[in-house]
Amino acid sequence: MNKVIFFFLPLLFVACGSNSTAGIANTLSGESTYKEQFVDENNCSQIIDNEFIVMCYDYQKKAVKSVSYTLIGDLMNEQNIDDRPSFHVEKELESKNRTSSTDYTNSGYDKGHMAPDASFDWSEESLDAVYTLANVIPQAPQVNRYAWSKVESYARDKAEELGELNIVNVVKYGQRSSRMGKNQMAISKGYFKILYNKDENYEECFYYNNKLGVSAQGDVLEDHAVSCQSVTN
């Protein structure tokens, strides 16, 4: 009996070691982890892929839960188109699940891009793709225009540095989110930005509270850094 036990112990050790290695690999940044974790059929009412960005949309919230895309470094300063298109309804959604620009009227919130227009202004097609209303959420103006825009710029610089950068923006909602507009769109508590490149063994994550009236003066990018393991919606 002692010989049998001695024989199986090494096998057990090898098996555990193999699983541990796989676990470590899965925590590293990669499209097979973050994108599939947050843009998943079990987590989304509908997944909308317009070739430039992939959106996880929630019918009940009338809003996007996460948006995934890849930035190519060489394209970040390729053209910088000045003219911006108008926001448009997402035609892939049934009308009962859509929002409209008028939902934002007098709300106090900006139409905040999840996939930012400044990262897609290298062609008219890519710009139009991020001006779908499915790609925007109600964002506190001081966050959208100052704090959030800093991390968007940082992501573009990082894409140029690494050559390519994968991004997943994850929106965090409360159990009973406030609503706004005729279509009763949910207002989020905040949002995460996950930056990662598996080949370069790189990942960084940031979180922003979606609070009205908070000053952005003195806002520092590093103050928003969080562990990527803490990201949830």
Automatic annotation (TrEMBL):
Keywords assigned by UniProt?
Endonuclease, Hydrolase, Metal-binding, Nuclease, Signal
Q: Where is the DNA/RNA non-specific endonuclease/pyrophosphatase/phosphodiesterase domain?
A: 49-227
- Show the active-site residues: H113 (proton acceptor)
UniProt superkingdom: Bacteria
Residues in ENPP1-3/EXOG-like endonuclease/phosphodiesterase domain copies: 50-233
Q: List residues binding Mg(2+).
A: N144
What's one GO MF term for it? endonuclease activity
Residues of the signal peptide: 1-22
Q: Which InterPro entries match?
A: DNA/RNA_non-sp_Endonuclease_sf, Endo_G_ENPP1-like_dom, ENPP1-3/EXOG-like_nuc-like, His-Me_finger_sf, Non-specific_endonuclease
Q: Which SMART domains match?
A: Endonuclease_NS, NUC
Q: Which PANTHER family match?
A: ENDONUCLEASE G, MITOCHONDRIAL, ENDONUCLEASE RELATED
- What's the protein called, per UniProt? DNA/RNA endonuclease G
Q: Which organism is it from?
A: uncultured Sulfurovum sp
